[in-house]
Every structure is written in structure tokens, then in C-alpha cells.
Design a protein that fits this description.
The chain is of the alpha/beta class. The protein has 5 helices and 5 strands; from the N terminus they run βαβαβαβαβα. The chain has a 5-stranded parallel β-sheet with strand order 2-1-3-4-5, with helices on both faces. Helix 1 links the parallel strand 1 and strand 2. The N and C termini lie far apart (39 Å).
Length: 136
């Protein structure tokens, strides 16, 4: 019998209502556990270092520090966390630039809840998430 691994997640978005919605989406999967929420980039880095999640779900635009800067900072110190960007920006060149920072996945906020949950599992297993998961 295979024991399923619980994926421990920290959500980082400066809008509480967005965090609440993403939490609800993720927690519909019994194998995903949201262990903390950050309302800023600085808080995301601190919480990641404190709680050591499997996955950090980051928004790009936050009040004090952009998500790509958070990703760059965590990668510069070789912090072992999978990073999934969940953003409204759908510019392909921008997405490619973000992926070169060592981000494990990038989804547009308009994707289905199932794709968000699937992406969390994929990045937790160190599988890159295709960036073409944009739905009309």
C-alpha cells in the first residue's frame, strides 16, 4: 500500500480574499495542507524559512516585494521549496523570464481549480508545470 504524501503549502498574496479563495480551492484536496498565509513578499520569505513548506504559491504583485523577487531571493540562498506563481499576467515573454529564475510553475489566475491543485502536486514532485495551462 502506497502512503500518500501530504503537500504542505504556504500561500502568498497581498489580498486576503484571494488567499481565502485559493485556500478553499487547495483544501478540497485532502493531500494538500495550507500551513500558513503571507500578505507580503517579506512575510512569504520569513514563513517559508520558518515552516519549510513543500510548495510556495506566490502572487507576482504584492505590496512590498514582487513574487519574482521572492523567488529570486529564495533561489539565491538555495532554499529547497517548490515555487508556483499564480498571477493575472499572461504575457508569454514575462512568463519565460519568471521561469528562468528557477520557478517550478506559472499559472494564470483564470485556470480551473483542478488545474491549480494538479499544479501544486506537480511542482511538489519537482515536475515543471506547463505554462500553457491558460484557459479562455
Amino acid at each position: 500500500m502506497t502512503v500518500k504524501k501530504i503537500v504542505r503549502v504556504i500561500l502568498a498574496d497581498d489580498h486576503a480574499v484571494i488567499r481565502r479563495g485559493i485556500r478553499r480551492i487547495l483544501e478540497k484536496d485532502s493531500d494538500i495542507l495550507v500551513i500558513a498565509e503571507a500578505d507580503s513578499g517579506t512575510s512569504a520569505i520569513q514563513l517559508a524559512q520558518e515552516f519549510k513548506p513543500d510548495v510556495l504559491v506566490l502572487d507576482i504583485e504584492m505590496s512590498d516585494m514582487r513574487g519574482d523577487c521572492v523567488a529570486r531571493e529564495l533561489r539565491s540562498i538555495r532554499f529547497p521549496v517548490a515555487i508556483l506563481i499564480l498571477s493575472a499576467f499572461d504575457n508569454q515573454q514575462f512568463i519565460e523570464e519568471i521561469m528562468h529564475l528557477g520557478v517550478d510553475g506559472y499559472l494564470i489566475k483564470g485556470v480551473s481549480p483542478q488545474k491549480i491543485r494538479a499544479a501544486v502536486h506537480q511542482v511538489s514532485e519537482r515536475q515543471n508545470v506547463p505554462t500553457n495551462l491558460i484557459e479562455p
